[in-house]
Write a structure and sequence with these properties.
heterodimer, A: D-Maltodextrin-Binding Protein, domain 2, three-stranded antiparallel beta sheet, 21 helices, globular, B: mainly alpha, MetI-like fold, 14 helices
């Protein structure tokens, strides 16, 4: 009798909380959601979470469906879900359902699940070809501020720096838990050290693109038959340290051209001197044979080109440890060189775990998410799979792991992307990485300059027509210019002329206005 | 009156029920696949919000359509879409009809089968594979045309993927090569159905081969040609996405001659995932296609009423 009452009560409370959440409670007056149910139930919310916290394992049974990117063999994924469920059932009476989707179809599959209304609780809001603001304005994910601050996510909430939460905040509500991964903007090149050793090039002395160009010249002279500079398929990363203000690096509609300068003027990247210098340099490299001709129809990735004999590939990344990964992928000794000071932007911090609008019970989803962020046992099950099957320990202290004998990346059946799970820093260290790699991450993340717009997210809905038109223009010119396939002389001006005609100034004005308002509110 | 119609209908069902049963499955498929989703067209006029659902989302008038016209490229993408399709329809028809007539002249049954199969193969090949075949021909440093054709002639290699000029020809050739096998089979099937006695009569009257073609074969094909063309006209506002996106390898410098409505919408919305705008583009395309089919059919009706679709 007593138990039944309690269950009913907690169910009611949970229901009330859900309704309140869906109504966008938490004092967002401009919320677009229906507010009829909100007022009466808002008061019940804090009580509900406290009550429920006392006896979470007695909750109604619930299934949390998690969607995660990258490949997984169905049998192993189900095993992982079963192993994870053991923990969550004991603690929350919650069963885990896990589905993994390969990179190739990730964006499409994830968006399909979000739009179709299919059951889905948790997913990484990452690489979905859309911004967090768009996910919010389309109603695909739910706000989680209350669930974090004084709900089941409180423990996790305290662990993430406050300014990082801003990067996943839209209209005053938090919509995601940022991945605990590298959060800096690093611009550099991954270099095959065999060439450097052979020609006595001191890679550690390379600090600028000019230094780097000299190294390329030496290598080209000694090996005239190779193209020392690789591209990523048709793409070349742009070495301009800008804050794209939430845009993907491939298509930038107005940015802070130098994020480290402290300036808050939004400018057109493609009209900037820094960009002109870069594409002129690339065209020059193309003429000198540093870059392969016809990059426009190249489909081979940068790491594959390095494996095939190229010297270096540009990278833009959030992490300090790309070299060991690339060494593993290419089978060559790789060393990184960097060109600019590290800095932090919303773009690198904002990839996050979100609760889908299709979740019947966001509170239960948050309980699991918090556990994934704080419980090393659960985190490692999700990240690395099943011990003995997809990984095994190679040291006695059980901290360093590698593939079991006879298993490698191609047949493990469970892809490792520790950075894309909520809290990478709980995970075991992969063989070849420094054992204190996560300590290094901490120091790494603590340093660096903050972009003045750190935490700002642009909502492009008011300029969506101009945005669509300009995206087409950027795609028309940028890749060909970035790889040096197109002569910037004349073409760069034509590019900017077309951007102007399609309304980039309107976008930039809107961005500036939103940024100014955000800065003022801050 | 109504009663008699109903009676006639029930009688027909009793009499031909196996045929109706066979048709029922097809109709059910049409209904589920082609009619039920039509309700979703309402999304073209809404600001879609997943939490409010298809019906609950707010209307926003014609705002979703604006992006199609607010670009300077609106003219280019419309011109490319229609002009390419018009050329495809005209050349494609001429080419497939010619092939069908030639196939019809082949006497050996074995050779006929062989030719049919060979011409059909390109139609079966995935457009992605086609794009790599084209790349094998056109690649700048090791493509067949640059190394085996232009170099022996003493010509400089051409950077095909950054030179827009030849692409209209390349795309038309690829489309013809890929599509003619399929449509020529349809025309060939009609040709086989033409009564041989017409030809015998023509021969007795002293008609040459060419006169047989123009006076017997082509009139026999007229119906099929008109139907096939009307169907193509209905899709004149859609472009073959694979042909215009995959085959030019999505190369920016070629956009002036390869950007069509479909590729424009795809590139523009890839970053936005805006369902309303995507529906608006589809709605606009089908509306124009529908209007063009009506217009084309009216013209056909005026010229030769017995050949109109309806």
């Amino acid at each position: 009798m007593k138990k039944a009452t309690k269950q009913t009560a907690s169910l009611l409370m949970a229901g009330a909380m859900t309704a309140a959440l869906l109504a966008g409670c938490g004092g967002a007056p401009a919320s677009t959601a229906p507010s009829s149910a909100a007022t009466s139930e808002q008061t019940a919310t804090p009580a509900a979470s406290q009550d429920a916290a006392t006896d979470l394992s007695k909750q109604e049974p619930y299934t949390v469906k998690i969607l995660m990117l990258d490949d997984g063999n169905t049998d192993i994924v189900n095993e992982v879900a079963a192993a994870a469920s053991e923990i969550t059932l004991a603690k929350f009476n919650t069963t885990i359902e896990l589905e993994r989707v390969g990179w190739g179809s990730w964006a499409q599959q994830a968006m399909l699940q979000l739009t179709s209304g299919e059951k889905l609780d948790l997913l990484p809001a990452f690489s979905l070809n859309t911004s967090l603001a768009n996910l919010v304005s389309n109603g695909y994910i739910v706000p989680m501020t209350d669930l974090l601050k004084d709900g089941p996510g409180a423990e996790m909430y305290a662990m993430v720096p406050e300014e990082d939460w801003l990067c996943d905040t839209v209209n005053g509500e938090i919509y995601g838990v940022p991945f605990n991964k590298g959060k800096q903007n690093v611009y550099g090149a991954s270099c095959d050290t065999t060439y450097a050793d052979e020609l006595n090039i001191d890679l550690s002395a390379i600090k600028t693109l000019d230094d780097f160009e000299q190294a390329l010249a030496k290598i080209k002279e000694a090996h005239p038959d190779i193209y020392p500079m690789a591209t990523d398929g048709q793409k070349m990363r742009v070495m301009v340290p800008s804050d794209t203000l939430g845009d993907p690096r491939e298509v930038v509609m107005g940015c802070l051209v130098d994020a480290t300068s402290g300036s808050t003027t939004v400018e057109n990247l493609y009209a900037s001197d820094a960009y002109r210098d870069f594409v002129e340099r690339m065209y020059d490299w193309q003429q000198k044979g540093y870059i392969m001709p016809d990059t426009i129809s190249n489909t081979v990735s940068g790491s594959d080109l390095i494996r095939a004999g190229a010297f270096a590939n540009f990278y833009t990344g959030p992490a300090p440890d790309t070299a060991p990964r690339l060494s593993r992928e290419t089978g060559k000794p790789i060393q990184d060189v960097e060109f600019f000071e590290h800095y932090k932007t919303t773009g690198e911090t904002s990839p996050c775990w979100s609760i889908a609008a299709n979740s019947e019970n966001p509170e239960r989803a948050m309980q699991v998410l918090n556990e994934m962020y704080t419980n090393p046992e659960l985190a490692n099950i999700f990240i690395y799979g099943i011990e003995g099957k997809t990984y095994e320990f190679i040291d006695d202290s059980r901290t360093v792991i590698d593939y079991p004998a006879g298993v490698d990346a191609s047949n493990a059946g469970y892809a490792f992307d520790h950075w894309a799970w909520p809290n990478m820093c709980l995970s075991y260290v992969w063989n070849g990485y420094p054992t204190d790699v996560y300590k290094q991450y901490e120091t790494f993340n603590a340093g660096g300059v903050l972009s003045p717009a750190y935490g700002f997210t642009f909502d492009n809905s008011s300029v969506i027509n101009e945005y669509t038109a300009c995206t087409n223009v950027v795609m028309k010119y940028a890749e060909a210019l970035n790889t040096g396939s197109l002569n910037p002389e004349g073409n760069l001006d034509k590019f900017n002329q077309e951007l102007k005609e399609n309304g980039i100034d309107t976008i930039i004005a809107a961005k500036q206005a939103q940024l100014d308002a955000w800065l003022a509110a801050k | 009156m109504e009663k008699t119609v109903w009676q006639r209908f029930t009688r027909a069902i009793r009499k031909f029920w196996p045929l109706y049963l066979m048709a029922a499955l097809g109709l059910l498929y049409l209904f589920i696949n082609n009619y039920m989703p039509m309700a979703g067209l309402v999304l073209a006029f809404k600001q879609y919000n997943a939490r409010k659902g298809i019906w609950g989302s707010d209307f926003n008038g014609l705002k979703n359509f604006e992006f199609l016209f607010k670009t300077r490229d609106a003219w280019i993408i419309t011109r490319n879409t229609i002009a390419y399709n018009a050329v495809f329809i005209v050349l494609g028809t001429i080419f497939s009809v010619t092939v069908a007539i030639l196939l019809n002249e082949v006497r050996s049954a074995k050779a006929k089968k062989l030719y049919q199969t060979v011409t059909l193969i390109p139609y079966m090949v995935s457009i992605v594979v086609v794009s790599y075949l084209a790349n094998a021909l056109l690649a700048t440093d090791n493509g067949f045309i640059n190394t085996q054709v232009l170099a022996p002639l003493g010509q400089d290699p051409v950077a095909w993927y950054t030179t827009p000029g030849p692409w209209p020809v390349i795309l038309v050739l690829i489309n013809l090569w890929k599509g003619f096998g399929y449509s020529s089979i349809i025309y060939f099937a009609t040709l086989v159905g033409i009564n041989r006695e017409y030809y015998e009569a023509a021969v007795i009257d002293g008609a040459s081969w060419w006169q047989q073609v123009t006076h017997v074969t082509l009139p026999g094909l007229k119906n099929t040609i008109i139907t096939m063309t009307l169907l193509s006209v209905g899709r004149i506002f859609y472009s073959d996405f694979g042909l215009f996106y995959q085959v030019p390898m999505n190369s920016g410098p070629l956009y002036d001659v390869t950007n069509t409505i479909d590729t424009y919408v795809y590139r523009g919305l890839m970053q936005n995932n805006n369902i309303g705008m995507a529906s608006a583009a589809g709605f606009y395309q089908s509306l124009v296609g529908f209007a063009l089919v009506l217009a084309a059919n009216t013209i056909v009706k005026k010229i030769s009423p017995e050949n109109a679709l309806y």
